From TrEMBL:
<dbReference type="GO" id="GO:0046933">
    <property type="term" value="F:proton-transporting ATP synthase activity, rotational mechanism"/>
</dbReference>
<keyword id="KW-0813">Transport</keyword>
<keyword id="KW-0375">Hydrogen ion transport</keyword>
<keyword id="KW-1133">Transmembrane helix</keyword>
<keyword id="KW-0066">ATP synthesis</keyword>
<comment type="function">
    <text>Component of the F(0) channel, it forms part of the peripheral stalk, linking F(1) to F(0).</text>
</comment>
<dbReference type="GO" id="GO:0045259">
    <property type="term" value="C:proton-transporting ATP synthase complex"/>
</dbReference>
<comment type="subunit">
    <text>F-type ATPases have 2 components, F(1) - the catalytic core - and F(0) - the membrane proton channel. F(1) has five subunits: alpha(3), beta(3), gamma(1), delta(1), epsilon(1). F(0) has four main subunits: a(1), b(1), b'(1) and c(10-14). The alpha and beta chains form an alternating ring which encloses part of the gamma chain. F(1) is attached to F(0) by a central stalk formed by the gamma and epsilon chains, while a peripheral stalk is formed by the delta, b and b' chains.</text>
</comment>
<keyword id="KW-0406">Ion transport</keyword>
<keyword id="KW-0138">CF(0)</keyword>
<keyword id="KW-0934">Plastid</keyword>
<keyword id="KW-0793">Thylakoid</keyword>
<keyword id="KW-0472">Membrane</keyword>
<protein>
    <recommendedName>
        <fullName>ATP synthase subunit b, chloroplastic</fullName>
    </recommendedName>
</protein>
<dbReference type="InterPro" id="IPR002146">
    <property type="entry name" value="ATP_synth_b/b'su_bac/chlpt"/>
</dbReference>
<comment type="similarity">
    <text>Belongs to the ATPase B chain family.</text>
</comment>
<feature type="transmembrane region" description="Helical">
    <location>
        <begin position="32"/>
        <end position="55"/>
    </location>
</feature>
C-alpha cells in the first residue's frame, strides 16, 4: 500500500526541466496509477451501477444456461426412462415368447417322439405280418410241391402196375381217364 501512496505523492513531483515534459519510467507505478485512475473514474461516474449490472447480467445469463442445461437433462432423462421402459417391456415380451417357444418345442419333441415310436411299431407289425404271410406262402408252396411229387410217384407206380397187368385197349382207356383226371386237377390247382 505504501507503494500506491508513494506513486500518488510522486505525481506532484514530476521532474521539471524548464518547461519540458518528462516520463516516469517506472512501469509498475505507472500501470498502477493508470488502473487506479480508470477504476476511480468508473466508480465515480458509474457509481457502481454498471459493474453490478454487468455482474448481474453475467450471473443471469449463467443461471439461464444452467437452468436450460438442467431442463434439457431432465427431458433427456425422461426420454431415457421411456426408452428403458419400452426396452424392459420388449424384453418381457421376448422372454415370454422364448418360454412359449421352449414349451412348444418340448411338446413338439415329445409329440414327434411318440409319432416316431408309433410309426416304428406299425412298421414292425407290417414286417411281422409280411414275414408270416411269406412263411405261409412258402409252406403252401412246399406242400403243393410235395403233393405233386407224391402224386407223380403214385401215378408212375400205378401206371407201372397197370402196364404190367393190362392189355392195350384197357391200357389206352386208363391212360385217357388219367389224362382227363390230371387236366381236372390242374384246373383245380390253378
Amino acid at each position: 500500500m505504501k507503494n500506491v501512496t508513494d506513486s500518488f505523492v510522486s505525481l506532484g513531483r514530476w521532474p521539471s526541466a524548464a518547461g519540458s515534459f518528462g516520463f516516469n519510467i517506472d512501469i509498475l507505478s505507472t500501470n498502477l496509477i493508470n488502473l487506479s485512475v480508470v477504476l476511480g473514474v468508473l466508480i465515480f461516474f458509474g457509481k457502481g451501477v454498471c459493474a453490478s449490472c454487468l455482474l448481474s447480467d453475467l450471473l443471469d445469463n449463467r443461471k439461464q444456461r444452467i437452468l436450460n442445461t438442467i431442463r434439457n437433462s431432465e427431458e433427456l432423462q425422461g426420454g431415457a426412462f421411456e426408452q428403458l421402459e419400452r426396452a424392459r417391456a420388449r424384453l418381457r415380451k421376448v422372454e415370454k415368447e422364448a418360454d412359449q417357444f421352449r414349451v412348444t418345442g418340448y411338446s413338439e419333441i415329445e409329440r414327434e417322439k411318440l409319432n416316431l415310436i408309433n410309426s416304428t411299431y406299425k412298421t414292425l407289425e407290417q414286417l411281422e405280418n409280411y414275414k408270416n404271410e411269406t412263411i405261409q406262402f412258402e409252406q403252401q408252396r412246399t406242400i403243393n410241391q410235395v403233393r405233386q411229387r407224391v402224386f407223380q410217384q403214385a401215378l408212375r407206380r400205378a401206371l407201372g402196375i397197370l402196364n404190367s397187368c393190362l392189355n392195350n385197349e384197357l391200357h389206352l382207356r386208363t391212360i385217357s381217364a388219367n389224362i382227363d383226371m390230371l387236366g381236372s386237377m390242374k384246373e383245380i390247382t390253378d
